Structures are given as C-alpha cells and as structure tokens.
Amino acid sequence: MAKRQGCAPSFCRVPLRGHLTLTCYPLLLMSTVVFRVAKIKTKSAAQGKTKHNYRLMDTPNADAERTATLNKEYINSGQVDYWSLAEARIEEGIAKTARGKPRTVRDDQVRAVEIVLTASPEWFKRGPDGQAEDMRASKWVADNLEFLKKTFGEKNVVSFTLHQDEKTPHIHAVIIPLTEKGHLSADKIFNPETLKD
Predict the structure, then answer these.
(1) pTM of the model
(2) Which of 82, 86, 98, 95 minimizes the C-alpha distance to 179?
(3) Using an 8 Å Cβ cutoff, are 83 and 7 in contact?
(4) Are strands 33-40 and 170-175 parallel, antiparallel or unpaired?
C-alpha cells in the first residue's frame, strides 16, 4: 500500500502505474480504502484469477476451514471461468458495424478488469478470536456491489466474490469494460476522469 505524507484529513490521491490514481478516504482514524485495478487480457490470466478467487488452487495465506463457510460469490454462483463470462458478455453487448456485424475484438484487447475492494485491517470489527466479523450480509458488501453496478453497468459486473478466509475481508469483482455504446475499452472506463468520483 502506497503511503503519502501530507494528505488532507479528508482524502488523498496517490499516483499508481500508468494513468490510474488511488484515492484513499479515511474510514476511521488511520484507516484507508483500497481499490486495486488489474487488466485481464489473456485466457490464462483469466483462468488463473478464476482458480484463485474460487479457491480451486492452493492458496497458502487462506484458512481452508473458513473458505467453505465464509467466502461467498454473489453473481457468478456457477463459478464459470472469467474468460467464458467475458466472451459471453462481449458477444451480447458489443456494438455492431454499419453492416450489422459485431465489431472485431483484437487479440491484445482487455477482455475484463478485476477490482479488489477492501479497507485497512483495523477498520473491520473483530471477534474475541481476532477474526473479522462475518461481512456476508453487511452494508459494506451491499454498498460495494451497488456502486460497481451503478458505475460500470449491471450486466458488466459478471463476478463479485467476498473473501473472508484471509486476515482482512476483501472483494474480488470482475468487470467487462463495455461502454454504453457497446465499445470494448478499458481505457475509456478506467481512467482518471471516470474514477475520480
């Protein structure tokens, strides 16, 4: 997590790689929000993220006893791999050419974007055992899901997974970067202007 000295008490902006900026809003004294964005361009990257997020591979920092009971997928209940979800959504939503055919998707084009949402560990209430309280029915989860659907389009949010089997609860969301006009463009959707609010 990048630290920035001299931030105003209300928020701060920290430049990240490329043109993305992380805006940190304090939640409680010394707490911050994390909003991490990662592009998914290849089938192997999508499959790797699918396996990690659904715990289909060994995840050493996850507590296996908590995985089955506390992790929850809110949208993709069948745990379909992210590449297949992206291909299906793109086929459904991509704009047509003047001749009525779907626009071509380049091989190097971003098919999906994974967003990780969390907060500082101290923001989450903890039980006597030190584990964070169960967040599955929390306002925090509901507000994050509503925000993503409103910001990126309900059909473009194809996966929303809550992880509570690690130290800090966090959400992995997968977004298909289709614009309202049906253009596949991560740069138009994830840029400083669209993410500043």
Answers:
(1) 0.81
(2) 95
(3) no
(4) unpaired
pLDDT of res. 5: 43
| Residues contacting residue 133 through CB under 8 Å, at least 6 positions apart | 124, 125, 126, 127
**What integer best gives the mean pLDDT of the chain?**
85
Phi, psi for 172 (deg, rounded to 5): -110, 120
Query: Distance (Å, rounded) from C-alpha 183 to C-alpha 118?
Result: 29
The 10 Å CB-count burial string (b at 16+, else e) for 77-111 is eeeebbbebbbebbeebbeeeeeeeeeeeeeeebb
Express as a percent the part of the chain with pLDDT over 90.
Answer: 57
**Residue 100 pLDDT level (bands cut at 50, 70, 90):** confident
CATH number of 17-195, picked from 3.30.10.20, 3.20.20.150, 3.30.930.30, 3.90.550.10: 3.30.930.30
Strand intervals (E) in 104-154: 112-119
- Ordered by start, the domain boundaries in the chain are 17-195
Q: What is the DSSP letter of 156?
A: G
Distances (CA, A) of 38 to 12, 43, 55, 72, 166: 21, 14, 19, 21, 20
